[in-house]
Backbone:
């Protein structure tokens, strides 16, 4: 059963804490992405990775960190430096290369700061 | 000005109606145009994509791209209650799969 899994589904964080969101895919995709979704705004790219051990900042990387030690895993850490972390976080993956490569999305993690 | 503009709605229609969803954009480099459907508290799923200008049909769904006007549309014929969701337009340039730009999404409700 191929796909993308994200955990946890809901996450609550106290101010000043770091939290890590999990993303795993078994689609054998090279590329993985993290997006943030806020009400009334489109998805915004936080980080992406085209290959293991390499990743690039997206439009809103400040206050976030990632790692890509394995092809199937791309965890996102929301640090205490992120001023407004309450949002819905989506992980996606795709093939790489020229042409159209569909991005497949996971079910998301809703993070709330208490 | 946002790079991609999409009316957030909400839009409510009776079952069987034709639905028209639209986005405008400002970046003339965009070549791939996507429509995603997102059910409440779920991840988006790709409905259709179009390359460059033209129309594409898939069952009850038709996507149109007018690059001269920087305007894209998604039409849903014979709408069903199961079509109730948020519809996101997305687009990117030809050369960069990493730089997709999304609209804010239009929330659609189809009433039985």
Residues:
């Amino acid at each position: 059963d191929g796909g993308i899994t994200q955990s946890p589904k809901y996450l609550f964080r106290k101010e000043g804490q770091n939290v890590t969101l999990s993303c795993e895919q078994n689609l054998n995709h090279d590329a993985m992405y993290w997006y943030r979704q806020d009400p009334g705004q489109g998805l915004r790219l936080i980080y992406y990775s085209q290959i293991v051990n390499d990743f690039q900042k997206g439009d809103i990387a400040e206050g976030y960190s990632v790692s890509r030690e394995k092809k199937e895993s791309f965890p996102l850490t929301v640090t205490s430096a992120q001023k407004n972390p309450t949002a819905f976080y989506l992980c996606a993956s795709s093939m790489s290369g020229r042409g159209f490569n569909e991005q497949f999305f996971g079910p998301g993690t809703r993070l709330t700061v208490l | 000005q946002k790079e991609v503009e999409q009316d957030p709605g909400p839009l409510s229609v009776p079952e069987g109606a034709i639905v028209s969803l639209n986005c405008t954009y400002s970046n003339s480099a965009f070549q791939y145009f996507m429509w995603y459907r997102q059910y409440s508290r779920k991840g988006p799923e790709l409905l259709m994509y179009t390359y460059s200008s033209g129309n594409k049909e898939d069952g009850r769904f038709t996507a149109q791209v007018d690059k001269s006007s920087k305007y894209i549309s998604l039409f849903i014929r014979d709408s069903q209650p199961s079509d109730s969701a948020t519809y996101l337009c997305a687009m990117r340039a030809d050369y960069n799969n990493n730089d997709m730009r999304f609209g804010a999404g239009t929330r659609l409700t189809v009433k039985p």
